[in-house]
Specification:
- By secondary structure, the protein is mainly beta.
- The protein has one domain: Neuraminidase.
- Helices cover about 5% and strands about 45% of the residues.
- The chain has 4 helices and 35 strands.
- It is globular.
- The chain binds fe (ii) ion (FE2).
- The site of fe (ii) ion (FE2) has 7 residues, from strand 22.
- Fe (ii) ion binds next to strand 22.
């Protein structure tokens, strides 16, 4: 199906130096098609990379106020036998279907104020499903921070529909599940805003049904994007990014105006023991904001080491809204959290900005050695930090290319941390095409061993998952 309301970009259009065309709406949806491969795809790499991101910047000629409002699309790159096939398809949310049937925008902050208030009064909103992908029991779901997960078909990428997992999810499932490898399970959360606000905690086990673990009261409605899990705790850093409730209810202004940065309130550290879910430890520290966590582990003395990307404030939200090159400071940090003594010590691990930190999934929730991340540059880079010896390994992209989150794919049959490939969806501004680059996880500096190219661009993506082909 073609996104007919979008105008196709001219291939002869001059390339702006900042690569902003990577934010443009998708121009074509399609099922799996052969991709052009540069280099040699490793023969042992068999599976599919699914990624999600805001993929329509406008609808029927009306621009969204922020990419967080834009309709999501799933891109998929299937690799086997040294060949690659790619697919791209919009998430057909109920809201988008209604809008297409009506031939006009029905939701969002761009509507005339009467429509927005009517939507607010009726509790109507669109689940844009545009942020990440959850894999659970061979099912795949597009995630959106403030609504239910939307299931899609792994083969056709067609939308199956939103789900509350049989009544388990009362309101929303955030964009960031976290596995604990040794527990063979995934944990997840959703922020619920009502007269009182809560963090709903969920478990998505490898076998058996999803279940709700507990609901932790929040002091106020806040933007809460991510958390982290260890073998014994779930850890939240609740930044003072308050939801402006009245503005949100009345849907006034641009998306970033729905939040207020209240540094005087500090950041609340919430540590939920897995064996005592109703008795979280919580205390407040100096204010900071974070989008993403890398990993965490129990240090054995009652303290927890937590790696996360720290921002001084909420400025990142405006930068993302302007689709500007992100120049805000985002530093990988390690915090030592002592829930019993209510202490929080934190230090920067890198002197440059980064985002989308990832670890070898076999080390999720346990002590680990390597963290992979994207550095915004310029030039953009994928880098690996060795926590043991402090060394860095880096692939710097050419000035005309942009990277995305590095996805770590363990080599089949191996057990050693870092014995893996790293896959990243890249954008080439000269050709206005996107592709998936495959790197040796322990030798990024050598550059990609292969890149599989779409014949078009993939609008910027945030997060994704790798599904091994022989997974059972
Ligand atoms: Fe995220």
């Amino acid at each position: 199906m073609v996104a007919a309301q979008q105008s196709a970009p001219s291939p002869n259009r001059a390339r702006p130096p900042d690569g902003r065309r990577r934010y443009e709406s998708l121009t074509r949806e399609h099922g799996f098609e052969a991709m052009r491969v540069e280099g040699a795809l490793p023969p042992e790499l068999r599976g599919t990379l699914y990624r999600n991101g805001p993929s329509l910047t406008s609808l029927f000629g009306v621009d969204y106020t922020h990419p967080f409002e834009a309709d999501g699309a799933i891109s998929a790159v299937r690799i086997a036998g040294g060949r690659a096939e790619g697919a791209l398809r919009l998430i057909e949310s109920e809201g988008l279907r209604e809008e297409r049937a009506a031939g006009r925008m029905l939701y969002g902050l761009r509507l005339p104020w009467r429509h927005r208030i009517l939507n607010a009064l009726r509790g109507r909103r669109k689940n844009a499903a545009n942020t990440s992908v959850l894999r659970w029991q061979e099912r795949l779901f597009a995630l959106f921070e403030v609504d239910l997960a939307t299931e899609f078909d792994p083969e056709t990428l067609t939308t199956i529909g939103a789900t509350d997992f049989g009544g388990v999810v009362p309101s929303a499932m955030s964009a960031h599940p976290h596995a604990v490898a040794s527990l063979n399970t995934q944990f997840h959360f959703g922020a619920r805003y009502s007269r009182e606000s809560f963090i709903d905690l969920f478990e998505l086990p490898t076998r058996g049904p999803a279940r709700r673990l507990a609901s932790v009261p929040l002091k106020a409605p806040v933007m809460l994007h991510d958390f982290i899990a260890t073998e014994r705790h779930l850890v939240f850093f609740v930044s003072p990014a308050r939801v402006r409730v009245l503005r949100a209810l009345l849907q006034l202004g641009h998306l970033e105006q729905l939040f207020a940065w209240r540094p005087e309130l500090g950041t609340e550290i919430v540590v939920v023991p897995l064996n005592d879910l109703d008795r979280p430890r919580r205390f407040t520290v100096d204010p900071f904001f974070q989008f993403h966590f890398a990993n965490a582990f129990e240090r054995g003395d009652g303290t927890i080491a937590v790696d996360y990307v720290r921002y001084p404030d909420l400025g990142i939200l405006r930068a993302l809204g302007q689709q500007a090159e992100v120049t805000v400071q985002s530093r990988l940090h390690r915090a030592i959290v002592d829930p019993a003594r209510e202490s929080f010590e934190t230090r920067a691990l890198l002197g440059e900005s980064c985002e989308f930190p990832q670890v070898d999934p076999r080390r999720a929730g346990a002590r680990w050695r390597y963290t992979w991340m994207q550095a915004p540059g310029p030039p953009q880079a994928i880098l690996r930090l060795d926590h043991e010896d402090g060394t860095e390994d880096r692939w710097s992209l050419p000035a005309t290319r942009w990277a995305s989150e590095p996805v770590v794919v363990p080599r089949p049959g191996s057990t050693r941390e870092g014995d893996a490939h790293v896959l990243t969806l890249i954008y080439d501004a000269e050709t206005h095409q996107s592709g998936v680059s495959v790197l040796d996880a322990m030798n990024l500096a050598a550059g990609p061993v292969a890149t599989a190219w779409f014949d078009h661009h993939i609008p910027t993506t945030y997060h994704g998952v790798w599904v091994p082909r022989d997974a059972g």
